[in-house]
Amino acid sequence: MKTYHILIILILISCTNKKENTNDKLPETKNNISFFVGTYTDTKSEGIYTYSLSEDGNINKIGLAAKSKNPSFLTKSADGKILLAVNELNSVNGMGTVESYKILGDSLVLISQQSSGGAHPCFIAVNDKGYVLTANYSSGNIGLLKINTSGHLSELLDTQEHNSSNHGKENMNAHAHSAYFSENNTFISADLGTNEIWFSTINNTNNKIEVNEPSTLKISGPNPGPRHIAFHPKQNWMYIINELNSTITLIKKDKDKNYKIDSTFSTLPDGFKGESFCADIHISNDGKFLYGSNRGHNSIAIFKINQESGALKSIGFTSVKGDWPRNFALSPDNNFLLVANQRSENIVSFKRDTATGLLTFIEEIKVPSPVCILF
């Protein structure tokens, strides 16, 4: 009997251990959210990776989704079935490239690759009509392509040159940094070199970019360097994060539906004397809080948005637990904020208090040269 009891105990222990080991390899639950990470591949990275975010805010690595060179910015098609990435290079006839991938669960399958229309593309956007915009940093232009329903990219359709003498201007130091679709194929782009916001429209008939009138808005301040844009979800307000002077510019539409600069806010605490450069900007889904990343100060600046005026009130700074926070992202439910720290090679998860907007550190995970987080 004693031998029998010992045998039963050993069997139970064995089963328990197997269950624990199996749990380590269980597939994602319905409460986990997968996300993709774009990287720079000049160190250990091989391309685009997949990770998951648990309902507790913990991050787990799933694996390499696709090998790619410098896939520094990512986006998804309107139906969420295709992932688009820029290759921040100038190796193809002095230009970078754009790639499209079929999303198969946590994996990516390459569909097509085309020229971005310029050197070192650092941003990509797509609208529900299938038009694709790239912001080519080094050549200072916007590239236009189109993607079909199967995910194949067209050849380059047109470019918008910011290094030009259009409208009597000579801008020889353009650095297009981002481009965002509005409605009816209109889009707004930010140029860090010319310190301008450009307003443009895609002509459906000939697939060409046309500048609106007025075509540009100059961002005020000492060499601001407009980089990315966040649009308020309920008002005609947009917020420009300026890389070079660490500010955020509030722009509003006037009664004639023209955009006008309203006010400017610092992203750094009073008295900060070090070197710092802004990177990314996002607004919570309820329109109550705005977040911006500081590279150098290595923080997320947190602001409360005045719902009547759009003015920003600084309510805190959260350390990113790393170096050089590039892109960051709010989880789809807005309960978490994830930061990609490029130089320290980690992604950090924060719990977001939806009532106060403040952030609480959850955990970090090592990631090779992360640049972009895409849910």
UniProtKB/TrEMBL annotation:
Organism name: Aureibaculum marinum
- UniProt entry keywords in alphabetical sequence: Carbohydrate metabolism, Glucose metabolism
Q: Which domain of life is it from?
A: Bacteria
What molecular function terms (GO) are annotated for this protein?
A: 6-phosphogluconolactonase activity
What family is reported?
A: Belongs to the cycloisomerase 2 family.
Against InterPro entries, the record matches this protein to: Cycloisomerase_2, Haem_d1_sf, Lactonase_7-beta_prop, WD40/YVTN_repeat-like_dom_sf
Task: Give the GO cellular component terms, alphabetically.
Answer: cytosol
One biological-process term from Gene Ontology?
glucose metabolic process
The molecule here is called: Lactonase family protein
